């Protein structure tokens, strides 16, 4: 048995690490009571714990997807891992920008990123099942909305608008990026 942390530095380090028990506790708590979970993480400092949670979930998601759908294709596993790590970051950036545009908003990026990281990480554990993808995307949006209210102190209407507009911005971003990538691909292959 380990002795309890005594110094401020030890307490901060203990709070910013993510053990196996911490991972599963976070996973169960975010599913059981999202509002209570996000109220607790409102007191977290930094993004390290949320990043570790997202990384572990992304590794699981990409590994299962790679073996189940692509017969152990390491390339596709890497694509899935990159997607699982980049999308929550991109969504958090868009949400942070949108939250900053609205008057009376004083939300820090680390809080918004933590909300997206925990919501995405929790959903990734089961989102590799194809039949559940659309339902789980709606559930992820609901988790993010609750997180923006509880962890970031936004109002319900504002957080619903931010989540909806973030989804629209993500769609527009990738629709605009698609022709550029196709043109780049044509240039590289010719």
From TrEMBL:
It comes from Desulfovibrio ferrophilus. InterPro entries: Yip1_dom (IPR006977). It comes from the Bacteria. The keyword Ion transport does not apply. Keywords: Membrane, Transmembrane, Transmembrane helix. This is Yip1 domain-containing protein. It is a multi-pass membrane protein. Residues 29-175 form the Yip1 domain. The keyword Transmembrane helix applies. It is found in: Membrane.
């Amino acid at each position: 048995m380990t002795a309890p942390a005594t110094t401020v530095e030890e307490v901060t380090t203990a709070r910013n690490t993510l053990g196996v028990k911490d991972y599963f506790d976070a996973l169960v708590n975010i599913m059981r009571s999202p509002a209570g979970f996000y109220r607790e993480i409102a007191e977290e400092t930094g993004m390290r714990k949320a990043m570790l949670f997202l990384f572990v979930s992304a590794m699981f998601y990409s590994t299962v997807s790679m073996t189940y759908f692509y017969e152990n294709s390491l390339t596709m596993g890497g694509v899935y891992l990159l997607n699982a790590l980049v999308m929550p970051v991109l969504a958090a950036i868009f949400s942070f920008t949108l939250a900053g545009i609205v008057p009376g908003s004083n939300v820090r990026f680390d809080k918004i990123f933590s909300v997206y990281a925990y919501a995405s990480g929790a959903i990734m554990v089961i989102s590799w099942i194809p039949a559940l993808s659309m339902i789980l995307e709606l559930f992820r949006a609901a988790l993010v909305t609750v997180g923006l209210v509880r962890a970031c102190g936004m109002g319900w209407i504002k957080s619903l608008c931010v989540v909806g507009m973030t989804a629209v911005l993500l769609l527009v971003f990738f629709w605009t990026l698609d022709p550029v990538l196709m043109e780049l691909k044509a240039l590289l292959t010719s």
